[in-house]
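[audit] Reproducing an earlier prediction to check determinism. Same input, same settings, fresh worker. If the C-alpha cells differ from the archived copy the diff job will pick it up downstream; this log only records the rerun itself.
[audit] input (110 residues):
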Amino acid sequence: MALTLPPRVSDRAFARLAEIAEDTGEVKALRVAVDGGGCSGFQYDIRFDEPSADDLVLEKNGQKVLIDPVSLPFLENAVVDFSEELIGSRFVIDNPNASSSCGCGISFSM
C-alpha cells in the first residue's frame, strides 16, 4: 500500500502565485478543493480564497495554497502544479488517486 502523504505544491506553482501577487499588488491564497460533479464524478475547484481555521495551509515564500479537510483525502499524494502550454496556462493537479480523468483536466473519478 502506498504511503499516505499530504498534497504538495510545485516550485513552479508557488512561483506563479508570486507572479500573480506581483502583477495584482495583492497576495491571495490559492484554494484547491474537490467537489462532486463534473463529467467524471468529481471536479477540482481551484480559485483564490481566504484561509479558514480548519484548512491545511501549504506555504512557501509567503505564498499559500489552501486545502479544506473534506477535500484532503481526495488529494493525498497529489501535486499542485502550474502548466504553460500553447492552448493556455493553468494550475493543474497530478492526482495518483484518480482512476481516470477527462480531457478538461478538471474532472476525475476514483
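[audit] rerun output stored. Observation attached for the diff report: Strands lie at 8-9, 29-36, 42-49, 56-60, 63-67, 79-85, 88-94, 100-101, 107-109.
[audit] end
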